[in-house]
């Protein structure tokens, strides 16, 4: 006879591991880090073929949205930015290389902090300050959102002949 407590814990750990893989990317898809690796500063502001966003705007949008979902998940008093205006930068390029590097570093650190949330609590329980959202919901939303926009970054790089 199976010990349900151990089986449930094993299944929970498998789910957490799979969610982490989903958040970090890879497997059959390029990671966010792959998508932004080796970009020249000049390419960050280009909007090819009348596309509405530059690579910088997509990266900054990923940073802002992921930060918002992280903060929403851990802070009942968090105030989200105004949608959509505050989620999309107006500038097509970062102010400088430091702004670019800070955005990339924050995306990575916020992802790592969210992964710690996954490991530390009940991922199924509705957040008390939400409308039914859970850590599981937010994990799936972050993964979906980031992968969607990572693909857009790769598409822009392909159009600019700056992809593998």
TrEMBL record:
Residue span, DinB-like domain: 29-153
Pfam families per UniProt: DinB_2 (PF12867)
SUPFAM superfamilies found in the cross-reference section: DinB/YfiT-like putative metalloenzymes
InterPro entries (alphabetical): DinB-like, DinB/YfiT-like
The protein, known as: DinB family protein
């Amino acid at each position: 006879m199976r010990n349900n407590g151990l089986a449930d814990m094993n299944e929970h750990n498998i789910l957490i591991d799979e969610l982490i893989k989903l958040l970090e990317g890879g497997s059959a898809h390029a990671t966010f880090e792959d998508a932004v690796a080796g970009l020249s500063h000049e390419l960050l502001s280009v909007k090819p073929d009348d596309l509405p966003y530059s690579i910088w705007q997509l990266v900054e949008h990923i940073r802002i949205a992921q930060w918002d979902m992280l903060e929403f998940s851990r802070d009942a008093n968090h105030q989200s930015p105004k949608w959509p205006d505050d989620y999309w930068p107006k500038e097509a390029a970062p102010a400088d290389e430091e702004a670019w590097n800070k955005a990339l570093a924050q995306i990575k650190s916020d992802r790592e902090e969210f992964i710690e949330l996954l490991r530390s609590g009940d991922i199924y329980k509705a957040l008390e300050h939400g409308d039914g959202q859970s850590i599981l919901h937010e994990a799936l939303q972050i993964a979906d959102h980031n992968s969607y926009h990572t693909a857009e970054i790769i598409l822009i790089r392909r159009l600019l002949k700056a992809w593998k």
